[in-house]
């Protein structure tokens, strides 16, 4: 039987309300490794741009962050962008991450993936490569992601599938493809992907407050449809979904941000959580690993203030869901 102390600890570690999937041991990092991208998707949450972005971290500075994360007990890293493989040193960063025994996955449009690169990724041993494909044909995909984006993505995806990587296709549901969920599952299976995961397009980035492409299909209806497809195609591809819904209220669990979750942007600024900093931008650090050590950034006032805010106000559940 658990003691009262053990029960209290269990309640405080209840993160069922969190919008992110957290590991039981260690912590997860979402790292926007660059804001540069060769595509110009309107709904990109980070409004990624073409061309070189001044002030992004060097290889050495990225290595310092990795060492700092390791020392703080973080275990999982998701690299995103922009397009991560725009960086010439991305393979070096991934290799260093795996040398430090991080569980690593990366989100990419796959357009920069070559056969040789897929082989190197094989040797590095990533846990997952997430490739964005928003339609079962060129017309639908490019309606969401822009002209001349479909064929390069499919070519790179095929290189990844031919390697040993676990390949997950990520598809945003929007008005153009909302009637073709099964066709998208069939396409993913025929391409040889291991998994396909659906999310809803949201009016963010360059399309902030623009609802012209946003699907109005009820989430519960889509969930039911996807769960049926998961059963139907279970021998061919794993079908999943991740929808942004209002965080569950929780009377006991405290926000895991800082201790079990971090968001790092392309300039090396650190935030407790992407959702928290969107609502409370004062909690993004002004210091970066270009101007201070990783430990100094983590110990800077915005991070300490956030932890104090959570503790002193006895906030349970997700702060962004509070009225």
Structural notes for this entry:
With about 325 residues, this protein is of the alpha/beta class. It has a domain at about 25-245: Aldolase class I (TIM Barrel, Alpha-Beta Barrel), CATH 3.20.20. It contains eleven helices and nine strands. The longest helix is centred in the C-terminal third of the chain and has 14 residues, at about 220-230. The chain is globular. The model is unreliable at about 1-10 (pLDDT under 50).
In a few lines, what is going on in this structure?
With 323 residues, the chain is an alpha/beta fold. 34% of the residues lie in helices and 14% in strands. The longest helix is centred in the last third of the chain and has 14 residues.
The pLDDT mean sits at: 88
Order of helices and strands: HEHEHEHEHHEHEHEEEHHH
Number of helices: 11
- The separation of the N and C termini measures 37 Å
Shape: globular
Rg, Å, rounded: 20 Å
CATH architecture of the domain at 27-245: Alpha-Beta Barrel
Can you tell me the CATH topology of the domain at 27-245? TIM Barrel
- CATH class categorisation of the domain at 27-245: Alpha Beta
């Amino acid at each position: 039987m658990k003691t009262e102390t053990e029960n209290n600890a269990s309640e405080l570690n209840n993160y069922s309300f969190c919008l992110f999937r957290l590991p039981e041991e260690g912590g997860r990092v979402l790292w926007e490794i660059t804001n540069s991208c060769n595509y110009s998707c309107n709904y990109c949450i980070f409004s990624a741009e073409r061309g070189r972005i001044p002030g992004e971290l060097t290889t050495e500075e990225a290595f310092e962050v990795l060492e700092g994360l390791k020392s703080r007990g973080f275990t999982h890293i998701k690299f995103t962008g922009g397009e991560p493989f725009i960086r010439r040193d991305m393979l070096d960063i991934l290799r260093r991450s795996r040398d430090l025994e991080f569980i690593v996955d990366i989100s990419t449009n796959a357009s920069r993936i070559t056969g040789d690169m897929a082989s190197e990724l094989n040797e590095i041993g990533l846990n997952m490569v997430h490739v964005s494909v928003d339609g079962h044909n060129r017309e639908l995909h490019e309606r969401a992601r822009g002209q001349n984006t479909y064929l390069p993505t499919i070519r790179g995806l095929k290189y990844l599938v031919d390697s040993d990587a676990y390949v997950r296709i990520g598809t945003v549901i929007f008005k153009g493809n909302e009637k073709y969920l099964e066709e998208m599952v069939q396409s993913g299976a025929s391409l040889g992907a291991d998994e396909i995961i659906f999310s809803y397009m949201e009016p963010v980035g360059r399309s902030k407050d623009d609802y012209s492409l946003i699907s109005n299909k009820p989430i519960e209806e889509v969930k039911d449809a996807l769960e049926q497809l998961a059963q139907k195609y279970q021998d061919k591809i794993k079908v999943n979904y991740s929808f942004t819904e209002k965080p569950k209220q929780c009377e006991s669990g405290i926000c895991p941000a800082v201790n079990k979750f971090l968001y790092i942007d392309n300039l090396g600024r650190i935030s407790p959580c992407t959702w928290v900093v969107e609502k409370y931008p004062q909690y993004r650090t002004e210091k970066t690993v270009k101007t201070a050590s990783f430990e100094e950034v983590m110990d800077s006032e915005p991070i300490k203030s956030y932890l104090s805010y959570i503790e002193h106000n006895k906030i349970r559940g997700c702060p962004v869901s509070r009225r």
